[in-house]
Amino acid sequence: MSPGRSCPLHYRYAPGVFARAADIYAETIYVIGGLYGNVPALKAILELADAEPIPPTLIFNGDFNWFNVDREGFQAINREVLQHVALRGNVETELAQDADADGVAGCGCAYPDYVDDADVARSNKIMVRLQETAHAFPDLTQTLASLPMHAVAEVGGSRFGVVHGDAESLAGWRFAHDGLHDPANIAWLQQICREARLAGFASSHTCLPTFRRFAETGDGQIVINNGAAGMPNFSHTQYGLISRISVHPAREGLSQYGGNVGDIHVDAIPVHYDTRAFEKTFLGNWPEGSPAHHSYFRRIVDGPAYAAPHALGLIRAPSFCA
Question: Model's pTM, two decimal places?
Answer without folding.
Answer: 0.94
